[in-house]
Design brief:
Two copies of one chain form a homodimer. In chain A, about 40% of the residues lie in helices and about 10% in strands. With about 400 residues, chain A is of the alpha/beta class. The first copy, chain A, folds into two domains: about 140 residues, Aspartate Aminotransferase, domain 1; about 250 residues, Aspartate Aminotransferase, domain 2 (3-Layer(aba) Sandwich). In chain A, α7 links the parallel β3 and β4. In chain A, α6 crosses α10 and α12 runs parallel beside α14. The longest helix of chain A has 20 residues. At the A-B interface, α1, α3, α4, α6 and α7 of A face α1, α3, α4, α6 and α7 of B.
Chain lengths: ~400, ~400
């Protein structure tokens, strides 16, 4: 018989996907250039030309047997060594190849990290607001997701709330900085405090607590800053990375888990992840994708456009009177809606062909997410539409809106 | 804490991998050309040049945003439609795009097929000899693998034994034809009998029984024959395919599940598999791999070498007095060892740098597997070594060996 629990998931469609599909359909009616689609986090700039060239060169000059042969399930050894070297250079770490597990995007990386350090029934703590897929990712491992309420003033970690949620069953803590959906980058102070907090809890509970750090936006940071690298601050850290955003290669499904060399069982964790792969049909990313990204590990797409877009939107939101924390990175911004129910707010915006995502599923009701990975020209054109929407729907009723 | 059940798997290393690693290490000592390595099922011929060219053309002429964008988790729509059309033309099926789910190799395809049609605790029947990884693939879904003993005279299905194993809890039956490790192709008679048998059992038990058909060797068939397409004979069939062998692209990790349009819930099964992907971090194969294989769906590598190798080895084995069923396809042959314990037999062969895999893990003790996806020249050179091994180790003791 068809598996019922998966069948039941069909009715719980993702609001992001639903809105994105609406935007596409609406685009067919009125021209997609007239739909201000802030729904999907899909990179809007090309991969670096060096990536394209390196693939062409590889296909032209390599023996097909070598580039298309089975990759070990942990990843191609040379690629793992190169990833380790690149991380060591950038973040002052001491990874070796054995600490790198090549994975099918961040989703594949997280699927392995969760399973490696939890047993069914264990708890994994996440911080609101969070990427909604985390719920399914975690639930299907048999672990239980526990949510720490957001500090909506800063979207840094709310340690008072964290203290209420963490307990002896907490085996892992999941962070995502720079953050989807808030765009916030955890400060060094936050990361240090988190490390100290977890060390104390490890001692108190007498077991490891792993920090699983989901970092696909690591390279998209604004104001010429860098994102503090969490693994630098806490021993039991598994850093989950994807090249989807930094190299604009979401379709290639390639990323990795980097295992802190100081963490418990550091030397066998990648091998354990190889065993996990056997049970979930993962294997590894495409051999040619592995070989190709290894050629451009320290390059990124031209990511400046995201900061440009953010500044335009942030300034406009502030001008309109929105409550919003200025993002430090990513291509998301996370304002408070102009009425309590962000679903109604976003539904009203839809009438103006302004596609905004209400944040109930992100664990932060009353807020909405804008994914501004779209052309700057379109961002600019969207501002008057946004103002018209706010004016017509809220200005008369709400004095807080200028 | 580190997950114990995965950690325990580390001690149960795959015998195939162990022997393959031994062969590589031994090759470093005496030159790999002197190691007759029949351990691994890794294609030994290049992908078709059309594949390489189509990738180069795609990278040269396409917008990177289009070829590297997120693929839907069910696969790129056009690719799914093209796969359906190709199968329809070859096998007289009536697939539409919605019946095709693009997967990360056959392992990814099976991971979704198993989960889609079973609940934890359900039973999945496999036939010995079988690919050893099936055990982990199935166990990790929560389902239970039940084994039907081999008919070692023919390696077709042993229906008397099947009758003893099947029961009300049987929700799926897994076949693999052409078969790894036996090299046997199920005859049309076998497939028809299987279909009839399953139809009766569906009626008797009052529920669906899905046939999951693992077909990575579908195109490697000898004597100018074709492998009967199981889905043509039984409605509730999920055909799991990989391009690893037919196009010699094991590293690309690309395949699919083809859902028989007549099967229960045929129209939503691919969507359900999309939900399964969320839980196991699968997503889909690399977008560029999908687009590239779609250009060469009806091509194969030059697969004739496998038949040539098979004939040389089969004739030599018969000459040496082995009990062996002539393979109808794949690049495997599955003779009976010359003593009861095939492990000891293979250990003795190792002394001659002849790497053979004992079949205990394949559910068929006393037999061994040879993967003859190696150069024909090396196959030829291995025969005198094989004869020497048999002569020195067994001829004096065993009259059955000529």
């Amino acid at each position: 018989m068809i598996n019922q629990s998966y069948k039941e998931m069909l009715s719980g469609k993702s609001i992001i996907r639903e809105l994105s599909e609406y935007a596409t359909a609406r685009g067919k009616e009125i021209g997609y250039e007239n739909v201000f689609d802030y729904s999907l986090g899909n990179p809007s700039v090309s991969c670096p030309s060096e990536y394209t060239q390196s693939v062409i060169d590889m296909y032209k000059s390599s023996n097909p047997m070598e580039i298309h042969g089975y990759s070990p399930s942990l990843g191609i050894e040379d690629v793992r060594i190169q990833v380790a070297a690149s991380l060591n250079q950038r973040f002052g770490m001491h990874y070796e190849g054995k600490h790198i597990f090549m994975a099918i995007g961040a989703a594949g990386a997280l699927a392995h990290a969760f399973r490696a350090v939890t047993e069914p029934g264990d708890e994994i703590v996440v911080f609101a607001p969070y990427f909604p897929e985390y719920y399914e990712y975690i639930r299907r491992t048999g672990a239980i997701m526990k949510v720490v309420a957001a500090d909506t003033d800063t979207f840094q970690i709310n340690f008072n709330e964290f203290e209420k949620v963490i307990n002896e069953k907490t085996m892992a803590v999941l962070i995502n900085t720079p953050n989807n959906p808030s765009g916030i980058v955890y400060s060094e102070e936050t990361i240090k405090k988190l490390s100290q907090f977890l060390l104390e809890k490890e001692k108190e509970y007498g077991h490891d607590i792993f920090l699983i750090s989901d970092e696909p936006y690591r390279e998209i940071v604004f104001d010429n800053k860098a994102c503090p690298y969490p693994s630098k601050y806490y021993h039991n850290t598994l850093s989950c990375y994807s090249f989807s955003k930094s190299l604009s290669l979401p379709g290639e499904r390639i990323g990795y888990v980097a295992i802190n060399p100081e963490c418990t069982d550091a030397d066998i964790l990648a091998v354990i992840m190889g065993q996990i792969s056997r049970g979930i049909g993962h294997n590894c990313p495409a051999s040619t994708s592995q070989l190709a990204v290894a050629q451009v590990l320290d390059k990124t797409s031209d990511l400046g456009v995201y900061e440009e877009n953010m500044n335009i939107i942030y300034d406009a939101l502030i001008e309109m009177g929105f409550t919003v924390v200025r993002p430090g990175g990513t291509f998301y911004i996370f304002p408070k809606a102009l009425e309590d129910d962000a679903n109604i707010f976003c539904m009203k915006a839809k009438k103006y062909d302004l596609i905004l995502v209400p944040a109930d599923n992100f664990g932060c009701p009353g807020y909405f997410r804008m994914a501004y990975c779209i052309d700057t020209e379109k961002v600019k054109r969207s501002i008057p539409v946004f103002k018209k929407f706010v004016y017509e729907e809220y200005l008369c009723q709400n004095k807080n809106v200028k």
